[in-house]
Amino acid sequence: MRIGILTQPLYSNYGGLLQAFAMQEILKRMGHDVLTVDWSNDNSYMRWCIDYCKSLVRCLMMHPVQFPLSPTKVNYMRKYTNPFIASHIATTKAMHHISAEELKQYEFDAYIVGSDQVWRWAYNAHIEWMYLSFVKDESVKRIAYAASIGIAYWDYPQDKSIMCATLAQQFNAISVREKDAVSLVKEYLGMPAQYVLDPTLLLNATDYEQLLLLGPVKPDTSIAVYILDMTENKRLLLDDLQKRLHCKINVIGNPDAQNSSFSYRDRQSPPVEDWLNGIRKADYVLTDSFHGTVFSIIFHKQFVCLGNKDRGNSRFESLLEMAGLEKRQVDQSDVLNYDMISSRLCEPIDWKAVDKRKQAMQTISYSFLMKNL
Description:
Blueprint: E1 2-6, H1 14-29, E2 33-36, H2 45-60, H3 71-88, H4 100-103, E3 110-115, E4 141-147, H5 158-168, E5 173-176, H6 179-189, E6 194-195, H7 205-211, E7 222-226, H8 232-245, E8 248-252, E9 267-268, H9 272-280, E10 284-287, H10 290-298, E11 302-306, H11 313-323, E12 329-330, H12 338-346, H13 351-372
Parallel strand pairs: 1-2, 1-3, 3-4, 4-5, 5-6, 7-8, 7-10, 8-9, 10-11, 11-12
Helix pairs in contact: 10-11
């Protein structure tokens, strides 16, 4: 079957790129011919100014919103992520506008939408695309795999909610990445949904090591730090952990963390492979990222994830409940509880029990894909 995958734009998000890679790898192993739709917002400064102003208006109206990255930052990230995309993700031609006409040449038999918060209204200027509004051929299958809303409540305006419900009801099957989303999809979209794993969790540690050509792990007594939203309190926490655990700090993937007050000897460079290897070779991981948490689990790392309410805590809660690791999440209000965080970082994890739970969910997730394709 020829399948088109629709997810968030491919450029700067490590977790987003790795889930796109994993989704393709899984479908290819199932015997399908796969391309990811390579769409992105217009990266001109004029377009950025317009989108920023729109986001500001939504923010002033008290709607949750994600402000667009500046063209400068996008271009900086693309220097390091474009090689990964070129090597590991097969894509359509690049486009700024998704339409039936643009995609006609690929003759897709099915579209899969997922995962990375594709159904969170605040994160999608063109939310209708994420519900496949451009698919006009009724014979083409429409499937959502691990479509993520990210939060435990419905944030769509009423008109968008009605429009997306109409589109969702044309899907052949829907699965979601959060347990909260199962009830949200039923209530607001009028469709049944199945809870499944994020695509990254359908592959195992050896899959990433082999496919990304990662070399042997070198001993590295360190804390890998992947913080998307750095604050002064998080910097103080890192200072304390460095002293308590006598570890060096490796900041991976976030250029904004360069101005942090804590000291560290090594810094992982931005390429995706280095980001992944930064987690893989660390003793401990501290992160406020969903996929930072995912790869801590995949690589069996002692970790703590810091609550990230604005970006969506529901994602963390479902993931950690699945793994039986709920105690590994720390609320934002507890960031300065140094004793608790350092003790949780050092507390052993029963990885056999975690893997058993993960394998059970992998079976359910694979079954969803095989049944509906």
